[in-house]
User: What shape does this take?
Amino acid sequence: MVFAAHPDDDVIGCGGSLAKYANGSSITVVYMTSGGAGSLTYSKEKLAKIREEEARKASDVLKIKDLVFLRNPDGYLQYSQDNLVRLINLIRQKQPNTIYTHSSNDTHADHRITNQLVTQAVFRAAGPWFQETKGKPWRTDTVLAYEIWAPLPAVHYSEDITQFMDKKLEALRQHKSQIRDIRYDEWVEGLNRYRGGATGVGKYVEAFEVVKISRI
Ligand SMILES: [Zn+2]
Assistant: This one.
């Protein structure tokens, strides 16, 4: 299960890992916002629609079918009871073994709030508390935080995505409204190549912080 503040964060942060595990695993991607603020050309509503469609195309490339759009306002994501309850309910409904999300060290406010919501929702989803939530308690074993624009200060876990780098870039290039002006697919390739060299695990590597691990 993946929690992303915006459509494309999922691909940038862990698209290679998702391509690697998509066969045989069921994956759900939850988008906290639909990224409506990412353009001065389109209205927020129009851009949000375009970006949801781009997210569907990118997920098709990665063979992921289950997408959830929570449609919070882009740039103004709140740590709120509503959002927390929605995340707790989703975690209990989908029962993930592993969750990928943003790092608390990220420089973007929506990314950091997503991290806070997800880490708190994982904790609360595991217990029989909070009468306003639904579903049976569910304990997620592993929570990994991915890197977007700011490289993680400490890497605890790395995934060799060498064989899936082409798929990751193909998925990323479905986000046409975003890479038209800034070729960040090239930055992402550079970051994953750097992680490959730095860790020695493979040519292209995705790096993660371990937020929580219960079983090894
Ligand atoms: Zn983002």
Remarks:
- The mean pLDDT is 94.
- The chain has one domain: 2-213.
